[in-house]
From TrEMBL:
<keyword id="KW-0472">Membrane</keyword>
<dbReference type="InterPro" id="IPR013424">
    <property type="entry name" value="Ice-binding_C"/>
</dbReference>
<dbReference type="InterPro" id="IPR010895">
    <property type="entry name" value="CHRD"/>
</dbReference>
<dbReference type="Pfam" id="PF07452">
    <property type="entry name" value="CHRD"/>
</dbReference>
<keyword id="KW-0812">Transmembrane</keyword>
<dbReference type="Pfam" id="PF07589">
    <property type="entry name" value="PEP-CTERM"/>
</dbReference>
<keyword id="KW-0732">Signal</keyword>
<protein>
    <submittedName>
        <fullName>CHRD domain-containing protein</fullName>
    </submittedName>
</protein>
<feature type="domain" description="CHRD">
    <location>
        <begin position="18"/>
        <end position="169"/>
    </location>
</feature>
<keyword id="KW-1133">Transmembrane helix</keyword>
<feature type="transmembrane region" description="Helical">
    <location>
        <begin position="170"/>
        <end position="187"/>
    </location>
</feature>
<feature type="signal peptide">
    <location>
        <begin position="1"/>
        <end position="19"/>
    </location>
</feature>
Length: 193
């Protein structure tokens, strides 16, 4: 029984190991330096290193300036603070709405393509390879040292941004739910001996 539960737990962990979801709330208060923009937004990034796909969904409104660029920066020295160079394509995401103060965006990127990445990020963090860039980017997302930034005519360095944070997957909750009875059973058996 214990071995069967352990195998199921490991199987669920393997299923969730490749695809990861990250979210952030965007605001001027999170910018470096912070600004008084009333703009807000949300972003969800679904990064699957096994299939080389990254889906980015952004919603934003209330900007003081018109959008000029949007991309993900990585990797800050301290998670959740500081600045970093652009990791994703330049000058902005393919098809991102430019010249607006509100909008939505959704795009699926092929992360095995060089065009998805800033060449400086590939060389600096990825050791000169796309596979290295994917691995470094995943590490930045996992550690909270990657952020999405919306640049505008009001704030060229960025009007609103948010640090991407991992979202626990249902499989993670399943692991916890399955693991608790296993631990309790093992503790009960130890007490009985």
């Amino acid at each position: 029984m214990l071995k069967g539960c352990a195998a199921m737990v490991l199987g669920l962990a393997a299923m969730s190991a490749n695809a990861n979801i990250y979210t952030a709330t965007l605001s001027g208060a999170v910018e470096a330096p912070p600004n008084e923009s009333p703009g807000t937004g949300t972003v969800t990034v679904d990064f699957d290193i096994a299939t080389h796909t990254m889906t980015i969904d952004v919603t934003f409104s209330g900007l003081l300036g018109n959008t000029t660029a949007a991309h993900i920066h990585c990797c800050t020295a301290v998670p959740g603070t500081g600045t970093a160079g652009v990791a994703t394509e330049l000058p902005t995401f393919t098809g991102f709405p430019i010249g607006v103060t509100f909008g939505t965006y959704s795009h699926v990127f092929d992360t095995s393509l060089a065009a998805t990445w800033n060449p400086n990020f590939v060389n600096t963090f990825g050791g000169g390879t796309i596979a290295g860039a994917e691995t470094a980017f995943m590490a930045g997302l996992e550690s909270g040292s990657a952020y999405l930034n919306l640049h505008t005519s009001f704030a060229g360095g960025g009007e609103i941004r948010g640090f991407l944070q991992p979202v626990p997957e249902p499989a993670t909750f399943a692991l916890l739910a399955l693991g608790a009875p296993v631990v309790l059973l093992a503790a009960r058996r130890r007490r009985g001996k």
